[in-house]
Amino acid sequence: MLRPKYSRLEKNIRYYFIDMGFATWLRDPDASRLVTGKSARIMAPEQKINRPYDPFLVDVYQLGMVIMQDIIPINEALDCLKPLAEEMVRSEPSARPALTKAQQSMNTLDSERRGYILSGDWYRK
Fold this sequence. Notes:
Structural class: mainly alpha
Largest sheet: none
Helix content: 25-40%
Strand content: under 5%
Order of helices and strands: HHHH
Distance between the termini: 25 Å
Number of helices: 4
Radius of gyration: 17 Å
Number of strands: 0
Oligomer: single chain
């Protein structure tokens, strides 16, 4: 059986959450950021009304839902993410944090919890 050389606690591991079920490629950064479509696993409120929406704010909503539905329930130690996730799933898109602000909040939480994380209890159920 193959085993990893290092555990996740011995090396800095990055996890990426990508494509929550509906990806759009915006080739021109100066073009309108509004898109349409309704084929995502987790649909934001603005996707349900079939009007153009900002896909980046939908990404924030979808990641917030993943945190609330898939991550926090399996690990009580990650309950500290709940206030951020609640901001991310606000029904009004303009009330959600930008992805960069959400990332800064997660980084702040990570640095505050680093001692607990390294204790090994952070990732256990």
